[in-house]
Amino acid sequence: MRRPIADRMLDLCEYNAHQIAELWYTDVSSSSRTRSYRSIPAQRAMLQAVSIYQNLKEMYFNDQPYQSILEFMKKKKLVELLHEDNIPLHEAIYSLILMRRHVWLFSELRAVYSDTALEMHQALASVNRVVLLFDYIIYILAQLYHELDSREL
């Protein structure tokens, strides 16, 4: 019996985080919407993506995903690093949109999804949950960016 789609997709993200982050960095460093990422070293920029990809499964299955993401982002100081690197908020948000996109691209490339009705239903549920997680990440990012900017005034 095959494991549920969510498990396969999230394991793929966790175990291939560096490879997915490299693909993400290629996009984020060449996009006209994220020009600021070109001014920081690739390894430093990819730390954000690797960290999120490696922890996505824990966030996904957490009973309180918002709180889990908030604690994760504060612990990893992801927002502070972006702020120190002078990444504008709108570019940081777009980088997360690209990061979310690469979850699907990589999963699709590895044929995680299937054509059975059950797996299509599971895939839809997984997509919705991951979208929710990235919505929380984006919201928390904006909130913490605002707090950092307020301290500087």
How would you sum up this structure, described in words?
The chain is mainly α and 153 residues long. The protein has one domain (5-152): Globin-like. It is 79% helix and 0% strand. It contains 7 helices and no strands. The chain has helices spanning 5-15, 17-30, 42-61, 65-76, 78-84, 89-109, 117-152. It is globular. The N and C termini lie far apart (57 Å).
Shape: globular
| Total beta strand runs | 0
CATH superfamily: Histidine kinase N-terminal domain
What is the annotated CATH architecture? Orthogonal Bundle
| CATH C-level category | Mainly Alpha
Radius of gyration equals: 16 Å
Instruction: List low-pLDDT spans.
Output: none
Query: Pairing-aware structural class of the strands and helices?
Result: mainly alpha
**Euclidean distance between termini CA atoms:** 57 Å
Write the layout of secondary structure elements.
Layout: H1 5-15, H2 17-30, H3 42-61, H4 65-76, H5 78-84, H6 89-109, H7 117-152
Helix pairs in contact: 1-3, 2-3, 2-6, 3-4, 4-7, 5-7, 6-7
Summary keywords:
single chain; about 150 residues; mainly alpha; Globin-like
The gist of it:
This protein has helices spanning 5-15, 17-30, 42-61, 65-76, 78-84, 89-109, 117-152. The chain has 153 residues and is mainly alpha-helical.
